[in-house]
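quick q for whoever's on today - can somebody do inverse folding on this one?? i tried earlier but teh output was garbage lol. tokens:
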């Protein structure tokens, strides 16, 4: 069987999470803005091109109740896409690292490329998230911390999807709080040895350098309270997830350090 040279691209590792962050942010921004302008005191009109139209005689909803239901529905699916994107990028990172470490792979002449690579992908797919992140971190130049953020994305999605966005007993800790740790990007300047976060109206002094870093924003919600998140909150979260993907790709081992993968 002739040699087949495989080119491994870090951009392909980052792509799933970046795509999920981009699309989910776009959807949340678009529909939250549309909901803000819509008269939600009544149901939206059915499609005009339907010969037969069907209406549901459900319970009467106020404008705020309808807004909350729609926003929760959008956010639950947006969080679901972010979760899938992060997981997919980590699986691609595992695949990348394992192929690179394997070097030359010997296979039967009758084998297809897909059948040769399938065991690598299956191993990544079979790992739970903590073990997948641990396996990837073992190969990275600098480990990434994301388990708590990933779990918070899962917890937010579960609350929105299964409890209509109302914090329940399964969501809270021993202190009676639901604590979420969302990823975000922090812009700051260094002053007197401390990172001072930028805010609107803040003056940046001559000689100070504006920088960015990956950070965590903690949010707490009480039992029975709504999981209230705005489009601006989600924008910050999605950008943090996209930057996680950039960091992941940038810390992958370099092909020239271990040789190229050949099948």
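ok took a stab at it. sequence:
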């Amino acid at each position: 069987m002739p040699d087949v040279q495989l080119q491994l691209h870090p951009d392909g590792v980052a792509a799933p999470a970046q795509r999920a962050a981009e699309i989910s942010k776009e959807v949340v921004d678009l529909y939250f803005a549309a909901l803000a302008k819509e008269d939600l005191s009544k149901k939206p009109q059915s499609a005009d091109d339907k010969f037969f139209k069907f209406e549901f005689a459900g319970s009467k909803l106020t404008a705020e109740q309808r807004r909350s239901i729609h926003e929760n529905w959008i956010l639950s699916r947006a969080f679901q896409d972010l979760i899938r994107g992060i997981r997919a990028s980590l699986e691609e990172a595992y695949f990348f690292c394992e192929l690179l470490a394997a070097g030359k792979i010997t296979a039967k002449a009758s084998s297809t490329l897909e059948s040769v690579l399938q065991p690598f992908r299956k191993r990544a797919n079979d790992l739970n998230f903590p073990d997948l992140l641990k396996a990837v971190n073992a190969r990275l130049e600098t480990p990434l911390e994301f388990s708590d953020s990933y779990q918070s994305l899962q917890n937010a999605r579960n609350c929105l999807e299964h409890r209509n966005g109302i914090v329940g007993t399964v969501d809270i800790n021993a202190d009676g709080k639901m604590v979420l740790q969302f990823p975000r990007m922090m812009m700051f300047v260094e002053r007197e040895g401390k990172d001072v976060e930028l805010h609107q109206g803040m003056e940046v002094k001559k000689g100070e350098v504006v920088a960015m870093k990956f950070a965590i924003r903690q949010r707490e919600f009480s039992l029975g309270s709504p999981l209230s998140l705005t489009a601006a909150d989600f924008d910050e979260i999605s950008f943090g997830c996209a930057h996680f993907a950039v960091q992941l790709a940038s810390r992958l081992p370099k092909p020239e350090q271990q040789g190229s993968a050949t099948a």
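fwiw Residues 5-39+62-154+227-256 form one domain. also The first strand starts at residue 5 and ends at 6. so keep that in mind when u check it
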